[in-house]
Amino acid sequence: MRSPRRHPLLVPALLCALAVLVARPTDAAGVGRRKDGDSGISAQVVRLYQDAALATGRYQAGRQEAEAQRAREQWFEELLGRERREIAVLHEGLGRIARAQYRDGGGLPLTAQIIFAADPAELMRGQHVFSRTTLALDNAVEKSRRAEARLAADEAKAAAVRRRLERRSAELATLKRDIERTLEEARGQLQGQADASVAAGSCRGAVRLDQPQQAAEQTWVTPVAAYELSAGFGSGGSHWASRHTGQDFAVPIGTPVRAVGAGRVVKVSCGGAFGIEIVIEHTGGYYTQYAHLAAVTVDQGQSVAPGQWIAQSGTSGNSTGPHLHFEVRVTPEAGSAVDPVPWLAARGTPVG
After folding, report:
1. Beta strands in the chain (DSSP E)
2. Whole-number pLDDT of residue 303
3. Measured in whole angstroms, how far is the alpha carbon of residue 98 from the centre of its chain?
4. Phi and psi angles of residue 225, each rounded to the nearest 5 degrees, phi first
5. DSSP bridge partners of 313
6. What is the pLDDT of residue 169?
7. Residues 87, 96: Cα–Cα separation, whole Å
8. Is 54 helix (H, G, I), strand (E, B) or coil?
9. What is the structure's pLDDT at 40?
10. What crossing angle do the helices spanning 120-200 and 10-105 adopt, rounded to 10°?
């Protein structure tokens, strides 16, 4: 029998195929780790924003409670002062009566006063009135003393509550500062990744974030929930070749950016003057652009709903500071922009 002949290239080919099969899971894992890391930083920034807002709310509530407690303490102190003044008046009246009795009776015992009195019956009536007055004053004084003791106890309790509230406020202030410091560090990492993508001219791909619950009745929204307006449409400046073509929303790095309306993502790109940007096509022939981003959470070709998080703001590209550049266009490309503020207002979404 003739021994089988091996093809001279068969062994090298098998070795190459084996190498590819062995290497493929490692490469895929590497890509997965990079995307998970990107999503991790993006999700951390969003979570820290929420934590910071919660800590700020608790801190403000704690400060308000401490102020209210101080107001209650002041009310207690004023009430205590009135009670003390009333007691002083009562004491003064009792002293006047005692002095008058001493002058009228000459310090004699009641029996002697009756014997020597011109009208013993009148003297007895006077003594009876004096006794009733003295008893009433003693009761009033005792009542005031009890009230003073009760108010003093309430005042001490209120002061203890205030000290506890102030300690809690200090703890909340420390927690708030720690969260804000961690948030600032996470923002720096997120922007660093964005700058690296822009420098390479290659996007990292969409990161995945837990989307907020959308209101069913929403059809149009502002591109960010909370903001300050900065450069407006048509404004001039050295940063633009001609005039500003959009509306800038000043927001911190990592702020969730929303699709203003339903549409389809027609462009996700990195590099150039706009840095990381997204363009969405809407019904009616309009397009919206979101630029200078730090991360994107959607893919090109994906459909989006009003208010859906599509990105996180940043300061990538030709940007002087953290903000979102928002444009409305009649084509997907630059050069066809219209003023976005009246455009949104016409759709029931005022900006201001």
Report:
1. 228-229, 247-250, 256-258, 263-269, 276-282, 286-296, 303-304, 309-313, 324-329, 337-338
2. 97
3. 66
4. -75, -45
5. 293
6. 86
7. 14
8. helix
9. 87
10. 160
